[in-house]
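Hi all, long-time lurker, first post. I run a small reading group and we've been trying to get comfortable going from sequence to structure in the token notation. Rather than ask abstract questions, I figured I'd post a concrete chain and ask someone more experienced to write out its structure so we can walk through it together at our next meeting. Sequence below, copied exactly:
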Amino acid sequence: MICQKSLQKSAKTDTKAATSMANGTTTHATSLNEEKGILTSHSRWLFKRILAFIALAGPDLMLAVVMTLVLLVTIIFAGGHIRFFQASLGLPVGITLTLIIYHSILARFRPEERKLPHHILRDWLPFLLVTFIYENLHDLSKLFYKHDFAGVFYHWDIAIFGVEPTIWAQKIYSPILTDIMAFCYALYFVFPLVLMFFLSHEDRRSEFREMALAVTFTFLMGFIGYVAWPTSPPRYFITELYTNPHVLHGPYIFDRLQSAWDSLSVVPCGAFPSLHVGISAVALFFAWKFRSINRIFGTIWLIYIPLVLGLWFSTVYLRHHWVIDIFAGLFVAGVAYALSEYVLKAWHGFRARYDIR
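-- Answer (accepted) --
Happy to help. Here is the structure in token form:
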């Protein structure tokens, strides 16, 4: 009897212990599941925050920021120097500040425009960053410079045209024409800025950001070309072949402008592709696209046609580019124009998918 009772007690004790262990295991499993649930919810929250930031920042700003960070890290590790402010930054910075000040004053009398100064700063930031990148390409191009492709493009030009076009252009040389060509060539940075100024002034953010993205893509592909195919311009590579005249001159503005261009040239072997052609072509494409917005944009389109065509011809006449550079610049502009529209559509779809406003 005593043994039987002992066995019964032992069995009860084992049962309680097993039950306790089972409860403990269940509690532990529940706790783990709860922790996993918390981690999952935190991960989802963080993921959604990241997506929201990307969606709100926009592809133009994200691309410009990434390009800037890559440039800065590369320059620092290569032992180069960072140039924080150069002359070419003056015009876009001045336009941005002018628009912000003007609309800030206007907002005091029109409450509906209070957010506009913030929008202007955000919208112009990618353009400012891209200009900053351009000014800091000097040390970067030296880092990757191994071979000058000017000789290759010189022979390509002759194979296509039967003569080197910059040498042929001597036949139509005149000092007045040289000044006219210099004027057109100097406008390449002005073309996108004028169009973007009016888009920003009228708060057409969607159109502005599409154009800003196209300009950013153009610069990005141009920078890749500078690094991958460093090419010196004809006026440096075949100087001895120019005889009539050996050096170009203009009676009014060419000599001053050429001196300024020489001092501001941050990429000595940056002829391919021609960003003068690429950026002006992007401006021309968007001037055509926006020509029906109102009379101002229609007028800009008509004015741009002869000036942009003059700029393209000036790149050869002034001996700054091989014709191959022009073809490459037009190709880059076309790709950037198409990419900007495609990426913005994808971006709007991305925002709609995750319900990010």
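A couple of things your group might point at:
The chain has 15 helices and no strands.
Residues 147-353 form one domain.
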